[in-house]
Design goal:
single chain; 130 residues; mainly alpha; Arc Repressor Mutant, subunit A; two-stranded antiparallel ribbon
Length: 130
């Protein structure tokens, strides 16, 4: 987990989002334990109740289960559930802005693919002829 916190949302929500990112990135897999509340609180200098509140959101979303006396563990199917929800969220909240920007700038699918692959953009057609 990153130790930097931002002011745009509560820390407990950032804790939750960081665990979600770790699940999506494959750092945490089904059946893996979450780092202990105490360890996370001590390492990132936040209140244990804040960490617990973030973890509780994951339990409420059925991504994590609590095993009494053993800790919290990633549920089976958590990654698939997250992928589905995050894709939907992206398409509803972020894609309309991204799409509008693409249209406004007149970017072509080829330019977007090249950029996504880390290749430099090809020169505009009139410059190729020179």
């Amino acid at each position: 987990m990153d130790s930097q916190w931002n002011d745009s949302q509560p820390i407990y929500r950032q804790v939750r989002d960081r665990v979600v990112a770790m699940i999506l990135d494959g750092v945490l897999k089904e059946g893996d334990p979450l780092p202990s509340v105490r360890n996370v609180a001590a390492e990132y200098r936040v209140n244990p109740i804040t960490v617990l509140k973030g973890y509780q959101q994951l339990v409420d979303e059925q991504l994590v289960e609590t095993k009494r006396g053993r800790g919290m563990f990633i549920n089976a199917g958590a990654r698939d559930l997250l992928l589905q929800a995050e894709r939907q969220k992206f398409l509803e909240e972020e894609w309309p802005r991204v799409h509008a920007t693409i249209q406004r700038l007149g970017l072509t699918p080829e330019e977007l693919l090249r950029a996504g692959e880390g290749r430099p953009p090809s020169p505009p057609p009139d410059e190729k002829e020179r």
